[in-house]
Amino acid sequence: MVDKGKHIHYFQVLTLIVLIIVRTSFGSALRVTAFAGTDHMWLTIIATGGYTIILAAMLLTYLTGDAMSDFSEMCLMLLGGILFIACGAMAIDTHHNLVVRGQKRDTGLAWGSLAVINGVVMIVDGILLAKAKYKK
């Protein structure tokens, strides 16, 4: 296990930032109705909805002082980062190509950008945790 005494502050802050972005982007994702297809819609729903629950549970374990497995946390953050980058890229691609300019296009591009930013933050969090765990 990583000595979380030194690193817990960074992980808590990064997890809280990710949760805020996920929660903010979840509302935007529900308002965006132009998806590339059914697969894109379900990927978006699973990534945003699932990771809202997962990240809330991770923060709860931090706040209660319980230890979540470092490997599990790394896997969840890295997988979430990949999912959010994929969702964001699909949203940006779909909404960038909309001919009609307006709120739907702007909301879709904003959501896609938030998803990509969120994915990058999640991957950075996973890498920092891996670096702290496997530092020798």
Overview of this protein structure:
By secondary structure, the chain is mainly α. The protein has a single domain (4-134), classed as Four Helix Bundle (Hemerythrin (Met), subunit A), CATH 1.20.120. The chain contains 4 helices and no strands. α1 (4-31) runs antiparallel to α2 (38-64), α1 (4-31) packs antiparallel against α4 and α3 (70-96) packs antiparallel against α4. The longest helix has 32 residues, at 103-134. It is elongated, with a radius of gyration of 16 Å. It starts with a helix and ends with a helix. The relative contact order is 0.19. The mean pLDDT is 77.
CATH architectural group: Up-down Bundle
Distance between the ends? 13 Å
Low-confidence stretches: none
What is the averaged pLDDT score? 77
Helix count? 4
Strand tally: 0
Rg on CA atoms, Å: 16 Å
The percentage helix is over 70%
How would you sum up the global shape? elongated
Number of domains: 1
Give the class from helix and strand content and strand pairing: mainly alpha
Strand content: under 5%
